[in-house]
């Protein structure tokens, strides 16, 4: 009887292990795992990377059901805390709006593709079978921005964990508190569900030096950087495989066939979303002369404030752009009313976007401002609109959009712009997975790797594509090979 009980216990344990349902605190997961300062936070890069490497080696041997359990723990844990995260983020970074952050957080949490997106590719024929599978890199070194810290932690963690990796996350100093809170709670959720610690790790005191050390650490297998050009450049020269999200200056083109009511609504709504801190957001409008006045009128009806005084336009440019040509962080992600108040411009109501006419070489056109300032450049023909849009986008190949009912115009613009994201007749935030209902079933896209070519990243981005050949089979269509 005793032997039968032992056998049943062994079978139960094996069944739990194979199905990924082992309980938290199991010896295989938690024994001898370092705790550092608790819940994935460590004092040094070496300690953090070592802990993540140990966790990843355990994690890589788990079945796919275990990965799904990890991601469900993250979703179930953060789901009830969305408003708190949005408010805490707004309080710390001082950019954007709480409502927009809630939308982006929901999008990252529920629309980031998980392990189901990693189904193998199989080819069979007279030469046998070829199978391609997507397997982990190991420990990935991530760097987050100050503009979207919580969303990036969630999005990157789900993508990378879905691929079987662990993650060292380098927090932006300007968002260190909310980033640490996110990582601590993520570890708590995962540990309670699985007994595994340190799948996502970070430092108690983030710094530029620690990010540089992480980038060159021998146990970091690849890098994923969502941030400014300088840190992306550091990743690209690190000698490691790097996924880098670069700068963007997205133009919205409007030709004379466009549905002007819809174009005005989409552009104003998307430009003003989270006060324009999304790199995908419309940064300038390039419109055909014939419909310019109608577009401006409709944009005003949708909540935009038209600034006509050229001296005030120039004053705002001088006020918001620093001597080195970069936006002043004092104004990045701030309300349109804050910028107008600082410039001494009178207005009524609560405008969400400031619009004004400008030449294509105006600094507010050529600079990625990340604030709700939207210059409007007019051109006589569609060819001029497209040529100007390509020019002001600056060769970033990041994001562009067009509002047109002319299919050849849409096709030609998509080809010529050659951007990682291209949107026709819609708000550009739709390409990040955000929809009119707050979030939808599209893949969330928060790390947009334009410089390195991956575009909108998914779980596949953070896996190695491995090939398996079996020349003697397997095909159901034939037997002799």
From TrEMBL:
Taxonomic superkingdom? Bacteria
Q: Which InterPro entries does the record associate with it?
A: Acetald_propionald_DH-rel, Ald_DH/histidinol_DH, Ald_DH_C, Ald_DH_N, Aldehyde_DH_dom
Segments carrying the region annotation (Disordered) are 17-39
Q: Please give the Gene Ontology molecular function terms for this protein.
A: acetaldehyde dehydrogenase (acetylating) activity
Start-end of Low complexity biased regions:
19-30
Q: Name one Pfam family in it.
A: Aldedh
- Cite the entry's keywords alphabetically: NAD, Oxidoreductase
Where do the Aldehyde dehydrogenase domain residues begin and end? 43-429
NCBIfam families reported in the protein's UniProt record: PRK15398.1
Name of this chain's protein: Aldehyde dehydrogenase family protein
């Amino acid at each position: 009887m005793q032997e039968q009980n032992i056998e049943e216990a062994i079978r139960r344990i094996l069944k739990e292990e194979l199905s990924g349902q082992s309980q938290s605190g199991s010896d295989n997961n938690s024994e001898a795992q370092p705790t550092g300062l608790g819940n994935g936070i460590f004092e040094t890069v070496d300690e953090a990377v070592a802990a993540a490497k140990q966790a990843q080696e355990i994690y890589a041997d788990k079945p796919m059901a275990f990965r799904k359990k990890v991601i469900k723990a993250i979703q179930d844990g953060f789901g009830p805390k969305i408003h708190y995260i949005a408010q805490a983020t707004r309080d710390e970074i001082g950019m954007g709006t709480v409502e927009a952050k809630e939308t982006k957080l929901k999008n990252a949490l529920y629309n980031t593709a998980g392990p189901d997106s990693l189904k193998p590719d199989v080819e069979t024929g007279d030469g046998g079978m070829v199978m391609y599978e997507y397997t982990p890199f190991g420990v990935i070194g991530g760097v987050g921005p100050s503009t979207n810290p919580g969303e990036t932690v969630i999005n990157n963690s789900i993508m990378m964990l879905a691929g079987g990796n662990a993650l060292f996350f380098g927090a932006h100093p300007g968002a260190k508190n909310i980033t640490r809170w996110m990582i601590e709670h993520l570890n708590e959720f995962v540990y309670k569900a699985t007994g595994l610690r340190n799948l996502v790790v970070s430092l108690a005191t983030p710094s530029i030096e620690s990010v540089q050390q992480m980038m060159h650490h021998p146990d970091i297998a690849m890098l994923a950087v969502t941030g400014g050009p300088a840190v992306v450049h550091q990743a690209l020269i690190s000698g490691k495989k790097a996924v880098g999200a670069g700068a963007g200056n997205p133009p919205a083109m409007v030709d004379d066939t466009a549905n002007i009511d819809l174009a005005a609504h989409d552009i104003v709504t998307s430009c003003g979303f989270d006060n324009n801190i999304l790199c995908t957001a419309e940064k300038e409008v390039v419109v055909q002369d014939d419909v310019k006045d109608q577009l401006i009128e409709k944009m005003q009806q949708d909540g935009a404030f038209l600034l006509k005084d050229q001296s005030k336009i120039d004053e705002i440019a001088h006020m918001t752009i620093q001597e080195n040509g970069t936006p002043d962080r004092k104004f990045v992600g701030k309300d349109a009313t804050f910028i107008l108040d600082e410039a001494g411009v009178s207005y009524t109501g609560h405008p969400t976007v400031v619009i004004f006419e400008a030449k294509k070489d105006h600094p507010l056109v050529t600079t990625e401002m990340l604030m709700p300032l939207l210059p409007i450049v007019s051109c006589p023909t569609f060819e001029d609109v497209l040529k100007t849009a390509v020019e002001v986008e600056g060769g970033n190949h990041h994001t562009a959009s067009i509002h047109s009912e002319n299919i050849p115009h849409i096709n030609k613009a998509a080809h010529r712009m050659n951007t990682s994201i291209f949107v026709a007749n819609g708000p550009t935030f739709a390409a990040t997975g955000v929809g009119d209902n707050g979030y939808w079933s599209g893949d969330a896209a928060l790390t947009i790797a334009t410089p390195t070519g991956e575009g909108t990243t998914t779980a596949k981005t953070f896996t190695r594509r491995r090939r398996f050949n079996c020349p003697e089979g397997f095909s159901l269509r034939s037997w002799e090979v």
